[in-house]
Design goal:
It contains 26 helices and 22 strands. It is α+β, with helices and mostly antiparallel strands.
């Protein structure tokens, strides 16, 4: 299989890579009965499974093929007499599915389970028989595929059946590998069904199975499924694309000549590399045509450069950009920052002297294998696990070391989805996400990572880390700086989430505007539905600032050297003893007192205000205005007022501004019995949960 794999019977002109292979594609429909049933000799493999063995040995030269022979004979015997709707013996289906996986490089256990994947569902073979004959690991996978195979693709059944598929995939990603190969073979032979059933199956494939193939990195299956779905759901556009490819086949293709130039450049540089021309598959050509309009010869494919080591990839890139004219906007480094589905490559584009622009992909051979086969190329994820790891209860979830972060998230939130329709809607939205970020959490005691979809906010990180406890989240520090919960996160950010001590705290309705993950949205929506009164309160219109004003005013204990003058402490800097101060005469004969470093002092002098000498009285009391910035939560004003009262300080006036993005500003004018107590007062206010800064105005 290749990343450009397409249906050979539907459009053979799009698959020149098959002609480059040493093996030709096995036509299962033309196999004789003897090849399917197996020869009389028990010392050699039947001809049909021999093709699977050949493909398997190409990836795993030392594989033990005896288990494949036994699995094939059991499958063939069990399915004997059963026919597919196309009229072929049923055994051709598991055989084709296994051949697809063998070409992708699946390990022996996966191929064995693939041969048997329909036996428990469609024949008299039981799981106990499979376990006794082939072991717990094969039995576990067959059981998982059997549960998935019970899916009814009717509209009403889709949500719940795909939930089962998701759980089965989470228990072992090889289950989904077999399911994807199974769907690919079914799509290849879908022509025997009624058009309306073809369309229904194609839509489910498009909405869920193709995104899952993309998420699991199995590009070889994903691209062929895309082409087959494209042909069924968009026949007119498919035919126009076919005509476009047919017209291109009769023209001179510039890519082979460009590939020869690339080989020469790399040979002269001493870089050992394999250079191929990779034709685009149908859907890719269609997308490029819609984007670029009229296509040129170099638009119908890409140049693939395969090397041995990571460092060679960058050496190739340097030579390409030195010897050709690079198109810098097309450069992407997926080696330093791999995609969420394990994909790694360097992407660039170069312009030739003839005016062609060729896209170039550079990767190692191992990267190429993973790019084609994704999780299939990882082999057995439990190979290093304990011997008893596979013998667990089939309903018990196993820890998969290869499980991607997105799959873990789906498994987490699917349990809390309130109804099948919500699950189905959110699943499709989640699968539509095509990029993932990783952020580092810092909770004061341990540091770990959180995988989130691109565009996720601090709200998503809170629910990913704390679950329902995130209802009480009041803010976050991102890379050490305080920020609101709505702030979007970037790959590599470090996040510290701040939780309220008040157990009654809950999310605001506007959190839904910034939540991207299903887990966060479902949890927030459930809380708001359970607390309708609180939900109404969080969405009500912003109120005017709340003010509490006392009876005292004036200039505190500041004295001006101007008889009978009214003295006022400036609100811009709120001076207190023993601050160095300056006084200025203003309208009405009053004197305003500023700290000497206040910006207003320079302005007063610039406009020619009369300077007046001021000093502090001998008494220790003073008046000051403090600004407390905090994250909004219930009872915050009461807690701050209580903290101030405990310090023996009188509140002259207080103003609370309406919340903005869960952040609240409180201004307090306070009468202190002793100016020396100001630092202790400010510390006490900062210690109130939710308060992140206290400063003098």
């Amino acid at each position: 299989m290749s990343a450009e794999a397409t249906n050979p019977e539907a459009h053979p002109e799009a698959r020149p890579e098959l002609r480059r292979r040493g093996r030709t594609r096995l036509d299962l429909r033309r196999l004789g009965r003897a090849a399917l049933l197996g020869p009389t000799s028990r010392d050699r493999l039947p001809d049909a499974i021999g093709h699977v063995a050949e493909a398997h040995r190409a990836h795993h030269p030392d594989a033990d093929l005896s288990i494949l022979r036994r699995a094939y004979l059991l499958a063939e015997t069990s399915h004997r007499g059963q026919m597919r709707k196309s009229g072929e013996p049923y055994i051709t289906h598991p055989l084709a599915v296994t051949l697809i996986l063998a070409e992708l490089g699946a390990e022996t256990t996966t191929l064995t389970a693939s041969l048997l994947h329909d036996t428990v569902e469609d024949t008299d073979v039981t799981l106990d028989q499979v376990r006794a004959e082939f072991g717990d690991e094969v039995c576990f996978i067959v059981d998982g595929v059997t549960k998935v195979e019970k899916i009814d693709y009717g509209a009403a059944a889709e949500p719940e059946t795909f939930r089962k598929m998701l759980v089965a995939t989470g228990n072992d990603v090889r289950v989904m590998s077999i399911k994807l190969a199974d769907r690919l073979h079914n799509m290849r032979t879908l022509g025997v069904m009624r058009p309306e059933k073809q369309a229904r199956i194609a839509k489910v494939t498009r909405d869920v199975l193709i995104p899952l193939a993309e998420r699991l990195g199995v590009q070889a299956l994903k691209t062929e499924l895309e082409d087959l779905v494209f042909a069924i759901l968009h026949p007119e556009e498919y035919e126009s694309t076919r005509a476009l490819l047919a017209a291109h086949a009769g023209e001179r293709d510039p890519l082979p000549a460009i590939a020869d130039s690339v080989r020469g450049v790399l040979r002269d540089a001493g870089i050992a590399a394999e250079v191929q021309v990779r034709p685009r598959h149908f859907v890719s050509v269609h997308r490029i045509a819609r984007t670029r309009g009229e296509l040129r010869g170099s638009d119908f494919g890409r140049i693939l450069v395969l090397v041995g080591e990571n460092a060679d990839c960058y050496a190739v890139l340097g030579e390409m950009h030195t010897c050709f004219t690079p198109v810098i906007s097309e450069f992407k480094d997926f080696i330093a920052t791999p995609k969420f589905n394990l994909y790694q490559s360097l992407h660039t584009a170069v312009a030739t002297p003839e005016g062609y622009v060729a896209e170039v992909i550079v990767r190692t051979r191992q990267m190429h294998r993973v790019a084609e086969a994704g999780v299939v190329a990882l082999g057995n994820p439990y190979a290093t696990a304990t011997p008893d790891a596979a013998a667990t209860d089939p309903d018990e979830e196993r820890v998969d070391p290869t499980r991607p972060g997105w799959l873990s998230r789906l498994l987490d939130w699917q349990q809390s989805a309130p109804d099948p329709d919500t699950f189905w809607t959110v699943l499709r939205a989640e699968l539509a996400q095509d990029r993932e970020i990783t952020v580092f959490r810092d909770d004061g005691s341990a540091t770990g990572t959180i995988s989130l979809p691109a565009g996720a906010s601090c709200i998503d990180a809170a629910y990913a880390q704390h679950g329902e406890a995130a209802h009480g989240c009041i803010g976050a520090r991102v890379n050490g700086r305080l920020t609101s919960l709505s702030s979007p996160l970037s790959d590599g950010d470090t996040v510290q989430l701040l939780l309220a001590q008040d157990a009654s705290s809950g999310p605001a309705a506007e959190w839904l505007d910034h939540a991207r993950t299903p887990a966060a949205r479902i949890a927030i929506s459930s809380w708001l539905e359970a607390h309708p009164d609180r939900a109404m309160a969080t969405t009500s219109a912003a109120r005017a600032p709340l003010s509490v004003v006392g009876a005292r005013g004036g200039g505190g204990n500041a004295v001006a050297d101007l008889p009978d003058a009214t003295v006022r402490l400036a609100g811009c800097c709120t001076p207190v003893p023993p601050d160095a101060v300056a006084g200025f005469l203003v309208r009405g004969g009053a004197v305003t007192v500023h700290r000497i470093h206040c910006a207003a002092v320079a302005q007063m002098r610039a406009v020619g205000r009369t300077s007046v000498a001021v000093h502090w009285r001998a008494t220790a009391d003073c008046r000051v205005t403090l600004l407390a910035e905090s994250f909004g939560r219930p009872h915050l004003l009461a807690d701050l007022t209580e903290a101030i009262a405990r310090e023996g300080v009188e509140v002259v006036s207080a103003t609370v501004e309406p919340p903005v993005e869960q952040r609240v500003r409180h201004s307090y004018t306070l009468q202190l019995p002793d100016a020396a107590g100001l630092p202790a007062l400010m510390r006490a206010m900062r210690d109130v949960p939710g308060v992140y800064d206290v400063s003098r105005v």
